[in-house]
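Can't attach files on this board, so I'm pasting raw text. These are the components:
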Amino acid sequence: MVSEEFSLNGKTALVAGDSRFWSKYIAAALAEAGAYVAIAASSSQRLKEAAGEAERLGRKIVAIPTDLTDPSQVNNMVKQAVTDMGRIDILVNAADLEFAKPFLEITRDEWQQVMDTNLNSIFYSCQSVVKHMLSARKGRIVNIISCLAERGLSHGSAYCVSMGGVLQLTRALALEWAREGITVNAIGTGWFAETDRTGALDEDRLLRYLPLKRYGHPSEVGSMVVYLASDTTDFVTGQFFYADGGLMAHA
Amino acid sequence: MIQITLSEMGKIDILINNAGIVRGQGRKPIWEITDDEWHLGIDTNLSSAFFCTRAVSQHFIERKSGKVINVASGEGLRGVRDNFMYCSAKGGVIQFTRTLALTWAQDNIKVNCIVPGFVDTRELQPDARPEVPPEVARASRSLGEFIPIGRLGVPVDIAALALFLASDASDYITGGIFAADGGGLAGGTTTTGYAPTIPIKEE
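---
Top answer:
Structure tokens for the assembled complex are below.
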């Protein structure tokens, strides 16, 4: 149950999905809070999982197969979401292509693919969705990124750059649309897994690096998305919230 | 202290607030920390910077010139378990720096902050034991692995930054927070400091 302040009853949300696991839990959390949810992803498996998770909660999700790296497909995705749901109140960008390699070994194709998926796709979806939000003079954009938007990681150059790009896009767009009723915020994720992997970590390192001593579960990001999508956050924009088990306070 | 310095040297161009103690901190739970211990930690690490700056402030304002260099710590930016006074005070030093910098921005007084990482200061402590106890050596080694550059800092790493911030070369710089930490604050989100190779997965 979601308390009234955070209720998304009557609202519509589009979750531009990822190739990991965020979107299904985010879509489910939004649906549970009362929103009418569409999810877009390139993989039919992801769409099926998300629909299944929502059905488990007695909700329905609109599935829109989309290659988020293709601007014309993204335009069609938004068109279809508006046709199905009437409008888009909430846009969640959850693109997250994991990639790591020593810098000198990264090919131009790999670099391009990471930027296309993690950064450019968000440029496309924001451009396409915000036209609708501007006419409504209200909107919520939540970008799911990694704490690596703010910290470096050796062999993580492409990923860190793409995430840092989205963080700065978040801040810049928040300012650009601050007086249009559209808020733009980002969530920084730390170490997450769908299944408990605590046992797999070396105990010393776990103590040293993860203050909560466990991985996060993607549903714990879903609840923060609901908060940032709710009407309680009209005054919150351009911010970067960590869901990281204390990692960034400490490491 | 300021009066003696002025009568010896005639003027003060540079104030470095470098007092700090970590002694006795981080060893016990919060309910066992006494008022005296709290005040000692806050007074030494934070209030001392306020007292020294206040004492020299009118001299700086009258001359329309001055450089204040505060020495904080990485622990003023990040938390450390059980290390209440040190972390709180050093975080305060960072905000004290910014507030002073803004207050005196029009008075040609520059205020900046150095954030040292882990620095091996044993060479500055003549009474330190000549032989390094094995547990200290072990801790230093693992610290070296954690620091991206692979070694602890040495005092001159910090002194060089202080020299720059004290010199005319930094005249346009105020309110800055400068780390000399071997890269420690740049990373720190993984246990190893580097990512395992993760290829792009085709769906």
